[in-house]
Amino acid sequence: MAKPRLEVPSSDCISPAITIxxxxxxxxxxxETFIAWCxxxxxxxxxxxxxxxxxxxxxxxxxxxxxxxxxxxxxxAHGLGxxxxxxxxxxxxxxxxxxxxxxxxxxxxxxxxxxxxxxxxSFVMGSRFKGSIEPGSMPKLHQYFGTPxxxxxxxxIFGSDFSDIHCGMRGVxxxxxxxxxxxxxSWQYASEMIIKxxxxxxxxxxxxxxxxxxxxxxESHMKRKGRLEPxxxxxxxxxxxxxxxxxxxxxxxxxxxxxxxxxxxxxxxLGPVSIGSVQFSSTTQLVxxxxxxxxxxxxxxxxxxxxxxxxxxxxxxRLSMRFDLDRMLVFCSSMGITGILMLVPLMNAYVQNNLRxxxxxxxxxxxxxxxxxxxxxxxxxxxxSLVVQIVFTRFEEMASVSESPILRSVNSV
Length: 413
Fold this sequence. Notes:
By secondary structure, this protein is α/β, with parallel strands linked by helices. The chain folds into two domains: 5-244, Spore Coat Polysaccharide Biosynthesis Protein SpsA, Chain A (Alpha-Beta Complex); 246-408, no CATH class. The protein contains 15 helices and ten strands. The two termini are 21 Å apart.
């Protein structure tokens, strides 16, 4: 694979405040108009800016882009996410506006993005639903089902308030964009970026934008890839939510499962309880114990995931203190010893009844179920503490290595 190569126009901006970073592949029908729109948008916003087209075309797109006054980064990277990952390395502006080169997003109107950034927003999302959607620009399935449903799902899970998570036109503070370390190679970069903006607690705002239909005989890349591509793109975005939003998928459900387990465990512990024809007994306690352990494991995994996805390091430091190995050793040992003591009556009865369990009294069974639950829970807590310390210590080591003068001098060569 050839190394990326940057081509600079003769009218290149010397010191840009804004970078317009846009992937393009075979867009010769629209690229000249798009570049002109970008220049008009920068002039209207009153800022100096550069345009970088991340190009993997086989037609005249790059030549037309350079002639129009845009930098062109020639790369073999395919996929929107992959293009952005490569393009981020070349930006010079303090604020980056992303989008498409097909003239579906109105880059003549950049002032709202710039004003939001200057007012303190590090992440500025465009919203087609707050602006205008030209007839025929978006498939009905996307407009009335796919985008609203996935936007609602992401907002409910992450506590955000977006109206259009799939809008490709968005602006990000350059430092925040680099810190996001985008890794998704395709459509799912959009959800990854939004989730990470929430995780990073970036000041966020939305601006209304105009969304237009494809120009002339041009057909969108999604349509070119076939009828199943929208469903693939939808699944990729949901998968990004699952991958980068693990703490949210695990924590709240885990807490609910844990509380349900506690209810099912302690209600029968008071004695056989009947509600109508349903009787809660030691069998119910076993189900409760299982749910307690399952919920606990989900919550512990959520804590580890929260630390891994903490880009500021604040949550990681807090969790490291909470899962301090010395304190957890004392706490888990106490839990384990208590669990063993709760098993003593069961073992005593087992021996006295010639190694038979069919004559146990209910309180002995309840106590034994509780003892086993405490033993397993103490093991889960201690192993989770070990994992937290190992993973978070590794993060600190990686950070210190990346900041070392020796590594910086090697990377600069």
